[in-house]
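User: I'm new to structure prediction. If I give you an amino acid sequence, what do you actually give back? Let's try with this one:
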Amino acid sequence: MRFSSASAISLVLAALTSCCSAFAQDSREQAWLILRANVSEKDTGKRAQAVRVLGLLRGESEALQMARKALGDEKPEVRAAAATALGQMRARQSIPRLRTLLSDKDPSVVLAAASALITFKDQSAYDVYYEVLTGERKTGKGLIAGEMQTMKDPKKLAEQGFNEGIGFVPFAGIGWAAFKTLRTDDVSPVRAAAAKMLAEDKDPESGEALVQAASNKSWIVRAAALESIAKRGDPSLLDGIVGALGDENTSVRCTAAAAVIRLSTIATTPAPKAK
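Assistant: Good question. You get back a string of structure tokens that encode the predicted 3D arrangement of the chain. For your 275 residues, that looks like this:
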């Protein structure tokens, strides 16, 4: 049987498509294994980092279940990360549980829950920020005096934000190690901020720059670049970040896992038919 050139090309393309699809599926499963392992880690920091990146997986039911379960974690770092993730996921069904965290004994959890509820324009969240501003809660139970003192001290608030892994200060989700890095490294935080700002830039050159930054020597830059790649939603960048699933840094590895899951989902979702 003789094949035309067009038929031969079609067969090659079909084989390549099948191969790429299998590769993407393997990477996706590896990414889920990384997240599943880290959300159950005994180490609080690793657990909080894994929960935080779940916010990049809006629409993934398993990620939603993980985040909701983490709201009940014994450690405030994890509860705060879960609240932040649910806000990013626009998980409206979690509003009642987020409201209960407004009475949490840890102020970082209260602020994380309030930040998430602001997404839904929930009045209870505005009440919390009113208290931070004025020192008095409009209605209901207010924060205890010691907690309010922390809220009013910018330095303590910033340190706590980095330590607890919440999202109301720059690079907060990365953790306490990032705060210590800020004291000795003036370049990496600036580059990380630049990487985050490129998330919405559709220029392909920016996408390639982010892929390159995902291999930066600074883990803060790598994590920020991978987060932006996830938010860009460009499946063509998937192959360039799969290697980050083996990164030695937990925050980078978990962020890479979330990015791989998100991009592979987009890659396998059929495009809507034009009307």
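You can read the tokens as a compact description of the fold. Here is one thing that stands out. The longest helix spans residues 5-39.
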